[in-house]
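Lest this sound abstract, we think one record worth quoting, the chain in one-letter code, the fold tokenised, each line plainly labelled:

>
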Amino acid sequence: MRVDPHILTEVRHSMVERGLLIKRLHHGMAWFHLPDVDPASLEARLAILAPLMNRKGDLTTRIGQTLEIATFRALSAQSTLQFLGHFRDLDDHDDSTPYSKVEPPTFLSGNSTSGELDFLVQYNGAGFAGLELKNIREWFYPARTEVRELLLKCCSLNLVPVLIARRIHISLFNVLNPCGVITHQTYNQLYPYSEAPLAEQVSHKDLLGYHDIRVGNAPDARLTHFIHVNLPSLLPTARKQFDRFRDVLADYANQRFDYPTLVHEIKARRKSTKRSSRKSKRGT
């Protein structure tokens, strides 16, 4: 079984502290190597790997858009969910340059927020949900800044939060799913068609080894099933859960308390709800 990233990070820190691993900054990025590595070999290796990690320009934007476009295509191919968020020039040029996106509004039914979500979707009886898409390498944990930002935007607009990302740690699901937060793992990082040569390099086992990279902005069967089937079926229950825990999530999103306190508050409220349910059943 693959070891979770937070455990690997702790082990790496320990190895650096004990001198078993050397940390080196190269072009503003941290690299790690064994103490007895040959200096010439190290420099040669960095000369190959560093350019792959330091691609600049609009690549980050275009990688982010690739998952957004795949989701947009999946949303456009169904009729159950109404949605806001649109790409208007997908047929005008290739993906070597960013596309023009019409972002969903930052206000809804008298509520407003300062940050944009990637899409808003609406399902009869469940109100609106806010979709946040993250096409990045890092795993998502419940204490990540991006998770707080998603909760802040959705609590402000009264939207069921939906997080779509490459990898989402089980702790995030266990803590936030009972509060109405919906999650979906893509298990792939998507690269633009125009960056196929780069994708081949960074996925090579002797280079960066990102084996899960997939090229293109077409939704795969997994994402399509989530958008077409899972999301509509999950939204009614998620709405009820979100309504019950919205104030707690808002306090956490606004940093009124930390992550351990969030876990405590959620557990306490769930226990209270279960006790009330048992009393109600005995009364009938």
Residues 49 and 200 are 13 Å apart (CA to CA). Residues 5-53 form one domain. The first helix runs from residue 5 to 17.
